[in-house]
From TrEMBL:
InterPro entries, per database record: 6-PGluconate_DH-like_C_sf (IPR008927), 6PGD_dom2 (IPR013328), 6PGDH_NADP-bd (IPR006115), HIBADH-like_NADP-bd (IPR029154), HIBADH-related (IPR015815), NAD(P)-bd_dom_sf (IPR036291)
Alphabetical UniProt keywords: NAD, Oxidoreductase
3-hydroxyisobutyrate dehydrogenase-like NAD-binding domain location: 162-276
Name of the protein in question: 6-Phosphogluconate dehydrogenase
Superkingdom of origin organism: Archaea
Residue span(s) of domain 6-phosphogluconate dehydrogenase NADP-binding: 4-154
Species whose genome carries this gene: Acidilobus saccharovorans (strain DSM 16705 / JCM 18335 / VKM B-2471 / 345-15)
GO molecular function annotations of the record: NAD binding; NADP binding; oxidoreductase activity
Amino acid sequence: MTRVSVIGLGRMGRGIARRLSSRGYEVFGYDVMTSAYSYLKDLQNFKSLSSPADASESDFVLLSLPGGSELLAILPQLKGLEGVAINLTTIGLEESRKAKSLAEDLGLKYITAMMEGGPTNAEAGTLVLYVGGNRGLYEASKQVLSDMGQHIYVGSDESAVALKLISTLILMANTVVLAEAASALKNLGAPPDDIVKALSMGGADSAQLRSRLPLMLKGSYKELFSIELGSYVAEEALKALKELGSTFTPVLAEVSEVLAAAKQRGLGKSDISEVEELYRLLSLK
């Protein structure tokens, strides 16, 4: 039985642990918040670890952490790991370089797999994964990646990170545009589901229209992708765009500013679709 350790049991990590458990893997997990284990207590083939170092005998270690600083703190604890360490943590290009360099210094077999999708996708095995790093390690990891979702090899670790950042910024730009129009759409007086269906039949259709516009129109939000994380990703994506040659990005820079303003007001604890509340509040002034 393939042994997988998930380091970081937040919403995404827990979903991945559940998915791999259902696929017959022997799943171990670690989180600094011991309360995270209670969400997985019903799994028959899950065991908690007392520290990341205890994952040393795993075939794969999946790193699903809050950010780059946590990733850099965990990697040294994996020294001696014979299996493959797969970073799933959303980070910027500079943090990616630091993590890659540190992993090499530690002698780790390390690749990057940037995730797209939310906790529901993680549990259903329908994530999208941009994979970068050593091609041989990618080939050796294909089965576990396939059990997590669709995956594509894009070259270097940095390429995987850059694609994730840029893709997510485009996604958030679409969400902000929908938020700007949401109040007007509500005032049409038609049922929210009919509005979404009508718009999805034409050129305005998008994944965000179908998944996030209903949340805005109904004022009912799911725990998906917080504005705090979204704001961080937007800042890192703008840095990546500039480094890669897109130096004039006024529209995307404005998206980043909108997210920062929403974050400042304490909005978006559950999802970036809550940016609609920022527009509603500003419209009342």
